[in-house]
Amino acid sequence: MFFFLIVSYFISMIAGGDSLPFLLVDNENVIREYIDDNGRKEKIYLVLDEAKEERRAIIKESEQINKELEKLLRHRDSKREQFIALANRSRVLRLKMQEVNLTAVIESQKHISEKEWALMKVDFYKKNTSVVKSSVRIENRFDKMVERTDKKINRVIENKTQAAEITAGLQNLQTNLSVAYHKYQNEMLNEESILYQYDLSIAQIEKIQEWHFETIQMVFRDIVDLHFLAVNNTNEREWRKLRGRLQIPI
User: Fold this and answer.
1) In the predicted model, what is the mean pLDDT of the chain?
2) Cβ distance 111 to 39 under 8 Å?
3) Contact of 163 with 233, CB cutoff 8 Å
4) Has residue 164 got a pLDDT over 90?
């Protein structure tokens, strides 16, 4: 179903498999520049390499779930129970990912001094500022895609009340994605944010991770709700026209 394609790239930005909702030193250039002690460098590399391998396996499973989700969204007769089963599998993987990331953050920062972290933060902030600037263009493209999709819905569906039901669901998805996305942006550009703290506690990291996961779940629910709005407010002919894939402008 094209609704999945509309948000797939957006989800990858705020919930990508190898991205983290907090700063994790995983850039070898940064480590090489700011960590003088070779022994500590090697210890950090070992921690991050192990985490990278574990994340790679989790991401592979997650990609399979995404493929199954896309397949369900393209079929009119998919059942909500099938989506729930996928959501449950996704939650198990996300908990695994959270544990891997938590361990990597705690263990790597044992080998980084507060002075070194202060220097690293400058590089991280510059990188995050650049990411946010480029992401604004992507968000604008996303908004234009939603606008085109809205027009297509109203063009294809003859019953305007039914068309309004679907577009309301689409706009709800757009709003929730925008709110979540801007929260990430604000955190990335706020140098006083918890993201840039040196002495993060396990509780603080877990709190960030939980919000990160809840955001993913919210987006997932919105996509599934939108799918069933489309199913319940279209006939077979309208569905066939709407389920065509749209090109994602990235």
Assistant:
1) 80
2) no
3) yes
4) yes
d(CA 242, CA 154): 10
Q: Where are the alpha helices (DSSP H) in the chain?
A: 2-15, 28-34, 38-73, 80-109, 114-156, 160-189, 202-232, 236-242
Cα torsion through 116, 212, 75, 173, rounded to 10: -110
Q: Summarize pLDDT for 38-68 with one digit per residue, the tens.
A: 999 999 989 888 988 898 898 888 888 888 8
- Written as one letter, the residue type at 12 is S
Question: The pTM is what?
Answer: 0.81
Nearest to 172 by CA among 152, 145, 148, 146: 146
Q: How confident is the model at residue 26 (pLDDT cuts 50, 70, 90)?
A: low
Backbone angles phi, psi at 76, to 5 degrees: -70, -25
**What is the mean pLDDT of the segment spanning 1-12?**
46
For every residue of 143-173, DSSP letters joined together read HHHHHHHHHHHHHH-S-HHHHHHHHHHHHHH
The answer to whether the beta carbons of residues 34 and 120 sit under 8 Å apart is yes
195 and 23 Cβ atoms separated by less than 8 Å: yes
Cβ partners under 8 Å of residue 247, min gap 6: none
Taking a C-beta distance cutoff of 8 angstroms, is the pair 119, 31 a contact?
no
Q: Which of 109-118, 120-129, 161-170, 182-191 has the highest mean pLDDT?
A: 161-170
* Sign of the torsion angle spanned by Cα atoms 131, 136, 140, 146: positive
Tokens of 170: 């689409």
Stretch 144-159: mean pLDDT, rounded?
89
